[in-house]
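Researcher: Structure for this, please.
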Amino acid sequence: MSKFQNIVQAGEGLQSEFKTSFREDVIETLVAFSNAKGGSVYIGISDKGDISGVSIGKETLQNWINAIKNKTMPQIIPDAEIHTVNGKNVVSFYVSEYPVKPVSTRGRYYKRVGNSNHLLSVNEVSNMHLQTINSSWDYYPRPGKTLADISIEKVEKVMNSIMQRNSNIHFDSAEEFLIKNELLLKEDNISNGCYLMFCKEDNLFTTIQLGLFASEIVIKDDITSSGDILTQVDEVMSFVRKHINKELIITDKQIENIQRWQYPLEGIRELVLNMIIHRDYTSSSDSIVKVFNDHILFFNPGGLPDSITIEQLLTNNYVSTPRNRQIAKIVKEMGWIEKYGTGIKRVRNMFVEYGLKQPLFESIPGGFAATVFAKNKNVVDNVVDNVVDSVVDKRRKKILSLLKENSKLSAKELSLDIGVSSRTIQRDIDKLKEDRKLKRVGGEKNGYWNIID
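Model: Predicted structure, token format:
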């Protein structure tokens, strides 16, 4: 199979597009490729894959290249090649990913998404440029906000937390902490990240909508969180804990006070942290948490970076690029996250170890969603049995240990020491005697317990 048969068979995609003639949309596509992973435009092939060819004059190719160069900013100059296929000419223009993005044509910015060109919004243009220069929106000044708009008490709390975790880090004052972390800028101006983490009052930029749903349209409880993003972590966790089940497990083995949440709280907290740290705070949309009877949905404005797919996210085969680098840095130093790029993997492991189905992660219009699911009864029973067996075994070992130190302890005395009822201790003793690990010597008043090795 020839090269062009392979190209035609593959069809249009992320890095290829067919055109029957050279028009303005050829330049738009080359710009879109430059702002993504690079790609080739083939002129002389219809979008159905039919090779129609194009007429090429003495200066045609150079004129096309000049048009591309003159109508793009920064200027892009594609690699051009003429191919002859069945006696027909096909021209290919190839551009690689441009190092300093975004590239525009006629004042518009495009990015290749799937097999089409996506017109970038102002926010997308800004974020693409910040990522290119290895910076992020949260490092930039917060318009109209100064040191007077943040809580120094909140700053000191975070500063002290960081110093306690790392003895090599020291700050003499909250102001020094803010300056060294680029949170406090010139003339008492503060960064976007500083405002989001330490703001004194509620604001519209951090809003999280939290709801308990009986169905998709019936809301039983809802609150709005609009404070600083560090406090929001605890607020979201409190709402989730309030509305998920907590089981008190009592079985025929009479285990007392074994409690188990419907979901692993550490995994939920990791998802909440990811939602808050990686949110696109330039978007007008709110973050959303919907708690249902059998699942919880977490929605966040802002999708995955262009360089990361869902598949790469799930296999942990990617390099983490935090959307909000300043916020992520502070949270990492506080010990709330271990290291960039490991959160999703750890969450998946937590849910599997808890006996739950792995969370569902989806890129959806306007953002990114994670859904966690409650477990079925069979899995619950197996996990509960394992928990019960473990507790029973530990308690019986404790009984043997105490009787080894004092062989005359009564069931009542053992119950007070271990913290369960006398009846539970008596059942354990009967089982230990049955298993020939414990033997009674003498009567109830004057006898003693003999530990059988």
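Researcher: Any notable elements?
Model: The CA atoms of residues 375 and 399 lie 34 Å apart. The chain has four domains: 3-120, 137-198, 208-323+334-377, 379-451.
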